[in-house]
Amino acid sequence: MQKLKLSVIPGDGIGQEVVPETLKVLDTLAEINGGVKFEYETHPWSCEYYLEHGVMMPKDGMARLHQTDAIYLGAVGNPKLVPDHVSLWGLLIKIRRECEQVINIRPAQYINGVNSPLANPNDFDFIVVRENSEGEYSEVGGRIHSGDDEIAIQNAVFTRKATERTIRYAFELAQRRSGQVTSATKSNGIVHSMPFWDQVFQEVGKDYPSIQTESNHIDALCAFFVSKPHQFDVIVASNLFGDILTDLGAAVMGSIGIAPAANININGKYPSMFEPVHGSAPDIIGRGIANPIGQLWTAKMMLDHLGLDELGSLLMKAIKETIGEGIKTRDLGGTSYTNEVIDHIITKLTAYS
Ligand code: NAI
Ligand code: MG
């Protein structure tokens, strides 16, 4: 029996509702497989925890996370209790940094039964690989003078190490998908970092002769996500460009309640973290109507990451069929409650086996 240890952080708001429900699905999958068992180490780290202890996580928190195979997170943030910058930096961003989760990935797919705002969504299925540690989001720079003479300088930082590992990750991923990588660039306007990015993209591409490559300027790429999203497979982007593209990806899918994300540690030294794109949704807490699909799809990404791809595929099949049959929460135009969606998925999974 393979035992996998998961750090579970439900966090705030609807995180506390969708995380426990989705763990039932993970247990069902483990039973179906028969050879794997999930052991959960659940942490109460949240804004309520902060009010009691003055910190978002205890001193030994990070060490405890390091001892597990993956981190499964709900959502963090309750601005009525704790300012967002305190809760996010004290937990989410701290984990991303200290667990060296240098790449962020977010898939987007057309799902039958989810109303995409696109007139012609055409069955798209792509994944954005975003550099998650440097680039345009750097602390290098400063401000001097004041008034009319004031100057602000913000430096983007592109190291070969981080650029190359991000691009290589995208190529590796493309080998397991349809074999196509699109690079987001802007070398016509940004004349140092983006030509460098393009150069590394070309160099790494030489190691993957069977992969089809293309570079698109970020502005055109944004337009293409709307006009022809089905033409993309893997898209690799810098921190800022990836940030913009992933929100756009979630938007064309049709609901923030279904979008998943993963923060990947690529050297295997520390665990990766899996979380939905949505936040704690304070406006719908306690009503049982939170959509659990974003959390579940994140769980699917975690299963794939842990080498349990077959279980991941099974879960995705059950998710799609459930939505297709109209078993969906209000944000998707349905009437089902969180637990009803989960029960339906569990029934399906059990029937497959
Ligand atoms: P939000 O994503 O929590 O909510 C935005 C809107 O989408 C709300 O109307 C909400 O009801 C709806 N929504 C979100 N997830 C849903 C789901 N699963 N099912 C049904 N409806 C859903 O974003 P908001 O309101 O800006 O932020 C609330 C708190 O969450 C803040 O403290 C914010 O900082 C935090 N946050 C945390 C994130 C994280 O932990 N990664 C990401 C985004 C926000
Ligand atoms: Mg964003």
Summarize the entry for a quick read.
InterPro entries: ICDH/IPMDH, IsoCit/isopropylmalate_DH_CS, IsoPropMal-DH-like_dom, TTC_DH. Pfam families: Iso_dh. The protein is an alpha/beta fold and 353 residues long.
What does this structure look like?
The protein is an alpha/beta fold and 353 residues long. The chain folds into two domains: 1-102 and 257-353, Isopropylmalate Dehydrogenase; 116-253, 3-Layer(aba) Sandwich (Isopropylmalate Dehydrogenase), CATH 3.40.718. Helices cover 41% and strands 20% of the residues. It has a ten-stranded mixed beta sheet, with helices on both faces. Strand 6 and strand 7 (151-154) form a beta hairpin. Helix 9 runs antiparallel to helix 10 and helix 10 (309-324) crosses helix 11. The longest helix has 19 residues, at 15-33. Bound molecules: 1,4-dihydronicotinamide adenine dinucleotide and magnesium ion. Residues 243, 247 line the site of magnesium ion. 1,4-dihydronicotinamide adenine dinucleotide binds next to helix 4. InterPro entries: ICDH/IPMDH, IsoCit/isopropylmalate_DH_CS, IsoPropMal-DH-like_dom, TTC_DH. Its EC number is 1.1.1.83. It comes from Halalkalibacter alkalisediminis. GO terms for molecular function: tartrate dehydrogenase activity.
Give me the strand/helix succession: EHEHHEHEEEEHEHEHEHEEHHH
What's the CATH H-level homologous superfamily of the largest domain? Isopropylmalate Dehydrogenase
Binned strand content: 15-25%
CATH topology of the largest domain: Isopropylmalate Dehydrogenase
Largest sheet: 10 strands, mixed
Instruction: Find the structural class using helix and strand composition.
Output: alpha/beta
Ligand inventory reads:
1,4-dihydronicotinamide adenine dinucleotide, magnesium ion
What is the CATH top level name of the largest domain?
Alpha Beta
Report the CATH architecture of the largest domain: 3-Layer(aba) Sandwich
| Estimated helix fraction | 40-55%
State the end-to-end CA separation. 19 Å
Total beta strand runs: 12
Computed over alpha carbons, the radius of gyration is: 21 Å
Uncertain segments are none
Instruction: Name the average pLDDT.
Output: 96
InterPro entries: ICDH/IPMDH, IsoCit/isopropylmalate_DH_CS, IsoPropMal-DH-like_dom, TTC_DH
Domain Isopropylmalate dehydrogenase-like: 5-345
Cofactor: Mg(2+); Mn(2+)
Catalytic activity: (R)-malate + NAD(+) = pyruvate + CO2 + NADH
